[in-house]
Amino acid sequence: MPSPFDGLHAIGVDETSYRKGHTCITVVVDHERHRVIWAHDGYGRDVFGRFLQTLTPEQRAPIRVADGDGARWIDSCVGRWRPNAERVLTGSTSSVG
Fold this sequence. Notes:
Layout: E1 10-19, E2 23-30, E3 35-41, H1 45-54, H2 57-60, E4 65-68, H3 72-81, E5 86-89
Parallel strand pairs: 1-4, 4-5
Antiparallel strand pairs: 1-2, 2-3
C-alpha cells in the first residue's frame, strides 16, 4: 500500500480548535488528492516540524507549494524543510507566532 506521503506536490496546513478552551489540532492536507494526510494535537513550529521530519528526503523533495494562513511558524518550517517551495498565504489574517 503506498504511503499517503508519497507524491506530495501541494500541501496545506492549518490549526483549529476542537474543544472549549482552545485545544488545538494541526491538520495537513494534500491539495491534489483532496484529503487530510496528517493531524496532530497542538500547533506551532514544533508540531508542523514534526510532520515535515516524518517525511523522508525523497517525500519532501517534490513539495512545490505549501499554503496556510500568515502564521510565522508555517514560514519557518517551510523555510527550513522545503526552502525552494512556494509559500502561499490563504485568506485568513491570523498571525499566531
